[in-house]
Structure formats: C-alpha cells, structure tokens
Amino acid sequence: MSPRLTLSTASRVLRQVRHDPRTIALLIVVPCVLLGLLAWIYDGTPVFDRLGAPMLGVFPFVAMFLVTSIATLRERQSGTLERLLAMPLGKGDLLAGYALAFGLFATVQGLVATGFAVWGLGLDVGGSVALMVLVCIADAVLGTALGLFVSAFASTEFQAVQFLPAFVLPQFLLCGLLTPRESMPDVLHAVSDVLPLSYAVDAMTTITGGGANGDVVRDLLIVLAFAAGAITLGAATLRRRSA
C-alpha cells in the first residue's frame, strides 16, 4: 500500500461526494432526523434516555453501510474501478482511500449527531460525551468497512440494498437493544458475541449508565478491530467489474 495513492483515492471520493448533496444529507441529516423522531415518540418518558445512545450508534452505522456499498458498486459497474486497478493503484490503496474519505464524513456525522442528541434533544449522558462521540464515529466507520466488504458480492444496486437486511437486521435484533443479551437463549447469546454491533451498543449503554470508561474503550477497540478486518477481507474479495 502507498500512502500517496491512498490519499489520492480519498481526495477523489471526497470531491465526488461534495457534489452530491443528497448523499451528504443522508450521511449528516438523516441520523439527526431519526433521533429527533425517536425523542418525539417517547417525549415525556425515560425511554429516550435508555434508547437514544444505542440508536445514536445504530443510525450512523446503517447510513454509512448503505452509502458505501452502493458507491463502491457504482464504480465497478461503470468500469471506473477496472481502470483504476489497471494503474499502480492496489486494492488495499483503493479501499483504504474509501475508508479514509468516508471516515472523515463519519467524524462529522458523529459530532453533529451526538451534539444534536445531547444538546438539542436533551439526551441524558451519564458518562463522557467525548467517548460517546468516539463510539459513534467508530460505529460509522464500521458501517463503512462492512459496506466496502459486502459490495464485492453484489452485482446490482438492488442486490446491494438487499444486503442491508441480511447484514444489519440480525445484528439489530441481537445487539441487546430490544432485550438484554444475557437473557437471550444460549445459542443467540453466543451469536451476538461475534456481531460487532453488539459491542457498539454495549459501549453506548455503559456510557449512559455511568459505567467504567475502561469497558467502553475495550468495546470501542473491538468495533475498530471488526472494521479493520472487514476492510482487509474487502481488499481480498474486491472484483474489478460486476459479473
């Protein structure tokens, strides 16, 4: 991998996204709108304080997964990816550039969404707001990495969208958001232990519960390890063109 080629790829992706206001709205505005809707639904109850922080990690994860998987697929369908890989640019440089570009958007997304939830919606944070921002950003980076990975297995945008329920919904159901993971059947609990979103939700729950920062950092590192693994697998499975 070459840092120069990685930065060049990231710069190209950022220029493309900058001229696409709908994508920017999806990345930055939609998580805030969904959080606002959740706060409105549970207005006057303590439910938003319990669900708000975990959903603050889930919404950016879903948005980044969807945008990244489709963006990468379009490059392959248009032949851009084939032309890029015919140059000295390697697969690792390409995916690292995408991860860096969308990681910057994830940082902005995490700052905006967390700030809106805490100071705009009054989310009760029992722990560190800074740690909450970091977890939110890590969740968005995880969505980016998984989107890059699964895009290699889709031939059309319709198939890319279908991966959303296949990869995201099982994690949503088993991450401990709907019911504590400890109360799940043993098999489901074991499955939840190998799903990255479980650790993202655990980190957010620990923060709002005033738990130990060390536990949050551990879960944060696990999420980032899953993201790094997904990018590595994505580089190994990336195809130049759709079949």
From TrEMBL:
It is a multi-pass membrane protein. Keywords: Antibiotic resistance, Cell membrane, Membrane, Transmembrane, Transmembrane helix, Transport. Residues 11-241 form the ABC transmembrane type-2 domain. Coiled coil: none annotated. InterPro entries: ABC-2_transporter_component, ABC2_TM, ABC2_TM_bact-type, ABC_2_transport. Belongs to the ABC-2 integral membrane protein family. This is Transport permease protein. The lineage of its organism: Bacteria, Bacillati, Actinomycetota, Actinomycetes, Kineosporiales.
